[in-house]
Amino acid sequence: MQNSVSLRSVWHRYGPNSSEWTLKGIDLDIAHGELLGLLGPSGCGKTTLLRLIAGFERPNQGALELQGRQVAGNGCWIPPERRGVGMVFQDYALFPHLTAWQNACFGLHRREKSSKVTWLFNLLGLEGLEQRFPHQLSGGQRQRLALARALAPSPKLVLLDEPFSSLDVEVRLRLRAELAGVLEACDASGVIVTHDPGEALAVCDRVAVMRDGALHQCATPQEIVSNPATPFVGSFVLQNNVIPVWPSSEGELSCPLGRFKNRIGSSAHEQSWPSEACVLVEPDAIGIVSDPRAEASVLGREFLGDLWEYRIEFSGMILRVRCPIEQDLMANERCRIALKRGASVTLLPQRINLIHSFV
Fold first, then answer.
1. Which of 22, 67, 286, 310 has the fewest Cβ atoms within 10 angstroms?
2. Could you count the other beta carbons within 10 Å of the beta carbon of residue 36?
3. Which CATH code, of 3.40.50.20, 3.40.50.10240, 3.30.565.10, 3.40.50.300, is assigned to 5-227?
4. Residues 6+ apart with CB under 8 A from 33
5. Bridge partners of 6?
6. Which CATH superfamily is domain 239-355 in?
7. How does pLDDT run across 290-316, given as a tens digit for each residue?
């Protein structure tokens, strides 16, 4: 079956005189029926990519296909209204002077209105709210209505731009849990923009991680968690610590927190060692002990219910460390810091797991 979306070497920048590219050589396929997450910090290009798929922006280079049909690039341009794409915005974008029913029916042919919108209202839990105006609905109901309006014309692709970010926690969790099932019922693919790693990993079939206009990794949530491709994916998505590592004279690999057995053989020589080499270390793989003579210092802490998450300044780095609540250190307190014995870390760029086995 053909892909729902295909992007080939897509570059984009705002204005012909701009020297900054907002998208840099994006290659991406989205399968039919798939829910893909575009994940990254503010300004990374994820909303620009969404707008380009919708047809609100044009690529400077590269090509875009929807359902196997080229819609942009190489002299081709299909306007948004002819792409068969539904759009759900963060701020709902509902007409305040129309009822919920009228909003959902907007733009539909008369013969399509009754049966399709009735079915969507039942699917999305909006039955009984047909005659209410947007200001008479809760935030969750308004977002459901926005989704109903996007799905009413039967698009094959629905684009969602941070649709849950303004909702309270309970409603957000409920709606995002229902999203995949709603899209499947409508035989539609989806692309959701989010800056929340937990949301992307929980909801999406695959996650595309972006930074500064570039695609760092596109994989299933399980693959990203078990095998992050770059230090940025490890730090932003998994909240891991990124720590430099180098070969030692004893044939081991060393970092400021400890040493590892060499699992990469003869390639671990100082002359050929890549300068970007690092290990990704989970916050609970590090141990700290109060010690007024030690180098490390507590910058602050956050209560996580059954854990403290400390911010520790050590060797020019700021590290996340999670400890039991019984381990109670205060701000500015000095402490010793080291990897726990047996801790597993990921070596990049080789993407090899290492076990800390030295005291």
1. 67
2. 22
3. 3.40.50.300
4. 4, 183, 184, 187, 188, 189
5. 29, 65
6. Nucleic acid-binding proteins (2.40.50.140)
7. 999 999 999 999 999 999 999 999 999
